Amino acid sequence: MQRRQFLLGTTAAGLAGALGALTAWRVAHGAHYVVVHSDAQWQRLLAPARYEVLREGSTEMPFSSPLLHEERKGIFACAGCELALFSSATKFDSGTGWPSFWAPLPHAVDTRLDRSFGLVRTEVLCAGCGSHLGHVFHDGPPPTGLRYCMNGLALTFRPASSALGS
After folding, report:
1. How far apart are CA 139 and CA 42, in angstroms?
2. Looking at residues 8-12, what average pLDDT do you find?
């Protein structure tokens, strides 16, 4: 109730900031995700390394993911809920050691400000379950100029033949 009173009593600038904080809270607490599990359920569903990345926001070691070298046509999906996230058509070699894409599929990801480790970055989350995928940077190739730098452990790959159900 205090949050609502605060929002109603603020100025337009304050309201915009409060709405941003509310959105971040909703993302952090899974308030708008289709797939929602308790922490204990996530731990049972995911291997420990995947749990650390997807649910605790960890980062895998660079150059450790087999998906870094995946060159077949297909779809990269969330390892937590299987939502299709990226097309192989947007994948590129960024030289950073993590699978990188210049654009997600429509409505596939959410973003939020990440100030961890004394850095200001944009965190990328799965729009289906809120799992941490990686970060997006403004140093990617055309046409977007973006680099979605994703943890391979956060993704699964479905080759085009299986992605299309054939």
Report:
1. 33
2. 35
3-class SS of residue 47: coil
Q: What is the pLDDT of residues 43-57, one digit of tens each?
A: 999 999 999 999 999
Cβ distance 79 to 66 under 8 Å? Answer: no
Domain residues for the domain of 23 are 1-32
Domain match, 19 and 51 both: no
For the cut 60, the answer to whether the pLDDT of residue 7 exceeds it is no
If pLDDT is split at 50, 70 and 90, which confidence band does 117 have?
A: confident
Query: Does 83 lie in the same domain as 109?
Result: yes
CA 93 to mean position of chain CA atoms: 19
Predicted TM-score of the model (pTM): 0.78
The count of residues in the chain is 166
Residues 20 and 79 in one domain: no
Q: Which residues are catalytic?
A: 149
Q: Are 87 and 75 in contact (CB under 8 A)?
A: yes
Tokens of 64: 């450790």
Q: Kindly state whether residues 10 and 52 are assigned to the same domain.
A: no
One domain, residues 126 and 150: yes
**Which residue type sits at 36?**
V
